[in-house]
Protein: Hexose-6-phosphate dehydrogenase (glucose 1-dehydrogenase)
Organism: Neogobius melanostomus
Amino acid sequence: MLLSLLLLLLAPLCVTTAQDEARKPGHVSVIILGSTGDLARKYLWQGFFELYTNQVNSGHSFFFYGGGLSPANKSSLVLFEILKAVNCPKDVSKERCAILKEQFLRLSRYKQLKTLEDYQDLSKNIQKQLQQEDMAEAGRLFYLSVPAFAYAEIADRINNTCRPSKGAWLRVVLEKPFGHDFKSAQVLATQLGNSLKDEEMYRIDHYLGKQVVANILQFRMENKKHLHPIWNKHYIERVEIVLKETLDVKGRIAFYDQYGVIRDVLQNHLTEVMTLLTMRLPLNLSNSREVLTNKLNIFTSLLPLSKSQAVIGQYQAYQTEVQHELNKTKDHVSLTPTFAAVLAHVDEAQYEDVPILMISGKQLDERVGYARVLFKDNVFCLQNKMVLNYPAILVSKNVFKPVVDSEWKEVTEHKDKNITVLGLPISDYYVQTPIVQKEAYTELISRIFAGRQNSFVSTENLLASWDFWSPLLTGITTLFPRVYPGGNENKDMLDIAVKGRDLSYINEVVLIKQDQMGGQNVNNFQVMQGKFRSDEMVSGWTEELIEKLASDIEEVAEKAILESGVFHLAVSGGASPLALFHRLALHHFSFPWKYTHVWIVDERCVPLTEFESNFHSLHDHLLQHVKIPYYNIHPMPVQLNQRLCVEEDRGTWQYEEEIRKFVNASSFHFVLLGVGYDGHIASLFPGVKPEDHGENMVVLTESPVKPHQRMSLTFNAINKARKVAVLIIGKYKHEVVIQLSRVKEETTQWPVTWVKPEKGSLVWYMDYEALLG
C-alpha cells in the first residue's frame, strides 16, 4: 500500500492575507518600473489595485507611479488601458467597484524613469504629494519588473535620490533571475548591498505565494502531533517535488537557452519547496528571521551534488527553435536541458539517506505541480497522471486525518468518482482545498506592504542555494541531454530510478548520434598536459580537470604520509575550489584524512560562522563530510578577544607559530590557490611585492571589495611549499588567462606572477572555458 502526504501545487495561487505589521497611517508611494510590460499587465497592477481596495479605509493614502524608459507621451495611454482592465474582488459590489476603479485611475500616473534627473524629479513629485496630503510618509515601494542587469543602477539611483523621509520604510522588490551561478549572484548581491539594506530587498519567488506552498509550514505545525513521529528516515521512503509543463519555450529562447530548466525552476521554485518540507519548524511562524534562519540551516546541511545524481533531457524540437530564434546555422548545437531530475540528500540524522527528488520539464504529458512525501517504491514513472484541477493538500487515509485550517475546507464529495491521483482513487485520500482561491502576486504584494519577509528570498539563502547548485551546473555543461519527442509520446523515456545515491534513466536509450551534433564530440576531450608561463599546465573540461586535481592531491598526500606520516594541505577561499571539495568528499573515500592537516591560505575578517568566511565554506563543502580529526583543522584566528583582525591581538603571529609547530620547515606539501579577476592570489592584491612582508608568513591585508580586512599567507609562506596548484575555471576567467599569458616578468599588477616555489613545483590547472573562452 502506498502511504503518502501529497501537496498539489496546481494553479498560480497564493497564501492567505498576511497580518499587517503595526504602523501608523501615512502616505505610501508605489513605483512600478517596467509598468507596461507583460508581468505588470497580467499581475502587478491587478495586485496593487487589490492592495488599494483592501487598504482604502485603513487611514493610508496612496499614489501609484508607472515607471519606464519611454517618454510619457508614448506610454501614458498604454498604462491607462492596462489600469482600466483591473477587476474588483468578487465580494465588492458593482457600484463600489466603479468608485474604487475611478479613484485608482486618478491616483495613478506614468512617469519616465530613465536618467538620474528623472529619479530626482520623482522624489520632488513625492514630496509635493506629501505636502498636498498633509500626512506623514509611511513608506515607498519600488517594484523592479525590469531585466536583472538594470538592478544595480536603479538601486543606486533609489538610494541616492529617492529614499523616504526619516521613520518611513523603503521596500524594493526584485524579480528573478538573481544571477546565473554562485559567482554572478554574489556579484549582484554585493552591488545591491552597496545601495540597499537586506531588509529593504524583497526578492520574489512567486511559487512562495501559491496557497499550497504557503500553507506547508502551517500544515506541518497544526498536524505536528501526527507528523512528528513519522517525519524522519525511519518512515519516509523519499520526497518528490515535481513541476511538469506541456508548453515549449517558443518566444523565450533568448532567455531560456542561457538558463535551462535547472536555473529556471529547480534552483528556485523546487528548492524553496524542499526547504519548507525539511526545515526545522520555527517556534513562531510569523517570525520572519527564524523562518529564514531555519531555511538557511537546511541549505548548509545539503550534501554536495555530483553528476551521477542528475539526469537531463531536451525536447526534440528545441534545436530547431534555437536555430530559428537565435538565427543560428543548422550546425549549431545547444546542450541546454529542458528536462531535469536531480537527487538530493540532507545531511542530518532526521533525514539520513532519504532521497529528495526534484523534477521539472517542458513538453511533458501534463501540466501539474506537486510535492509528495511517501514511504514505499524506488521507481518514479513520469507519466503517472494527476487528474485534479484545483490546489489541494491530500493525505492518505491510512496515515492520519489532518487538522483543517480555518482558511481551508475538507472536500468530501467529488463530482467524478473515478478521479485517480498517482494511481490511487481520490476516495483513498483526505482532501483539503482553500475556501477562497487567490492569485499569488496579489497576496505577495500584500505581504510586501506588511513587511513580512518570510515569503521572500534573503541574500544569505539565495547565495546558499546557488552554492548548492553551481557545481552541478558546471559538471553538466558538456553533457548531451537525452532527446525526447514531447507530450504523450515520451512514454517511459524519462522514467528514472534511484540506486543508492545515484540517479539514472530506467531505459538505456541512445538518442543522439555524433553526426546529429554538428560533428562535435565534446566528451572525447581528455585531460591534457602542457606549459603555461614556463610551468606545467593541466587542462580539460571542468569535471575531468577537477577529477585530475583531486587525484593529484591524493597522490601527493599518500607520498607525504609514506615519507613523514603526515600531509599538510593549504587551501584558498572563493568559489573556485568548491567543485574540488565536492569531488574529495563524494568520491575519494580512501583519502588519508586521519593523517591530513588542513590549513587556510586566506580568510575574510568575519566570524567563522558567517557565510562569507572561507573556513565556513570549507567546513560546509568538505570538512563536515569527511572523517578528519578536529585537531587537524587549522582555521585562521581572525577573531580574538571578541574583535576581528586587530593587530594588537597578534592573530597573524599566532598562526605563524602554529605553522612552525606542526609543519616541517614551514613547508606545506600542497597549496591550492585561485586567481581573482585582478590577478590576486590568496588575499595578496595588486600593488604588493614579496619584500613588502619580509620574513613574515602571515599578514593582515586590505581588499578593494567588502569585507575589506583579510588575513593571508604571504609569498614567503606560499613559495616554501613543495607543490603549488593554481586553479582557474570558468569562461569569465578567460580574460585573466589571456593577460597572464602576455606578462613575461613578475609584476605588482598581477600578484600571481610572484608565485615561484623555491624548491617545489608550480602547476596551473585550467578548464577549457578559461583557456579557450
In short: Residues 253-278 form the longest helix (26 residues). DSSP finds 21 helices and 34 strands in the chain. Confidence is low (pLDDT under 50) at residues 9-22, 509-525.
